[in-house]
Amino acid sequence: MMPHAGQIRAAQEGAQEGAGAPPPASAPAVAPGPGVGTAMAGRQRLILHIGTHKTASSTLQALMAHNRAALAARGVCYPRTDRPPFPQHPKHNSLYAALNGGPAQTRAEIDLLLHEFRASGAHTLVLSAEGLSTLPAAAVAGLAPLTAGFATEVVCFLRRPDRFVESLWNQRCKTGREQRHIDDFLRRPRVRALLDYPAMLDAWAGVGRVTALGFEATSAAGLVAGFNAATGLALPAEEGRRRNVSPGMRCAAIMAGLQRRGIVADWRTVAAGLEGEDTRHALGARLRAEILEGCAAQAEDLARRYGVRFPDDLPEEPDAPLPRPRAAELDRIAARLPAVSG
User: Is residue 341 one of the residues assigned to a domain?
Assistant: First the structure.
């Protein structure tokens, strides 16, 4: 049986074993309710929601942006998200970009965030960008000028590694940023490094108290409710519409194939031109087992020190990964597209 979000949090409280383990993520420092309340022990709060990718971050970010005024009335500042590189997204990509850009850019972005927070009169600052979870430890340490003086809490949702790989590949294909097929994508050292969840969380444990939540279990119990329980915020329940709809895996594979040809296309147009049914899975049983076996030690460490345990169900799928699209299929799709050569 899959644990619910409350069980995950309870497990976190009892799973802190061994020297150097991060402090337990027990009940929220500020209880949810009509308002967030006062900052704990008189200190201002900083909540960093760091993703990870493909864990409904877009839904949470849209809710916080849409409810910015209501949060402000309860003393919570969700700062502006309209700075580059992606001002159209309701997330703090500007902070992620600054941390990748070096100390001077980081300091300038932190100054902007702190100026807005101080001008708001709020006691709690909330920042959200799933890219933060991909930063190297040295870049994470660059947050020190931001976290100084705050009681800092880090909230991170984690998807089972095999599902994370599939979803991340799908997302990159959907947005025209991936040319590799799923098997080649999996072999990238950068992708493999993203699956070491304990190492990532350990870097963030140097920033503040870490609350890690299993995405599958929390989603089953209510994602927004789980986020509220972890943060003490009182966001309204999810709206019915998904914020980041993913294409089927065949569509994703064709999008990657078109990218290899230098063809840019909208994934919805590609999906409409598919013949036959699409599929929800791309890895195949062999690669899925390889990922899960390769991440077994990290999964045990994650459960022991952060209280996150993933479900063990497996999809019905062929042993081999999703076949690469044939040249004739790419020709047929490309001929129907109002495509632009890149």
Answer: no
Q: What is the CATH number of the domain that holds 134?
A: 3.40.50
Domain span including residue 19: 5-162+195-244
Contact predicate 46/152, CB 8 Å: yes
pTM for the full predicted model: 0.85
**Using one digit for the tens of pLDDT, what is the confidence trace for 249-293?**
999 999 999 999 999 999 999 999 998 889 999 999 999 999 999
- Report d(CA 161, CA 166) in Å as an integer: 9
- List residues bridging with 49 in a β-sheet: 128, 155
- Tally Cβ neighbours within 10 Å of residue 259: 19
Pairing assessment for the beta strands 340-341 and 263-264 based on DSSP bridges: antiparallel
How many domains is the chain built from? 1
Gap between the Cα atoms of 136 and 141, Å rounded: 9
One-character DSSP codes across 154-203: EEEEE--HHHHHHHHHHHHHHTT---S-HHHHHT-HHHHHHT-HHHHHHH
pLDDT tens per residue, range 233-257: 999 986 545 567 889 999 999 999 9
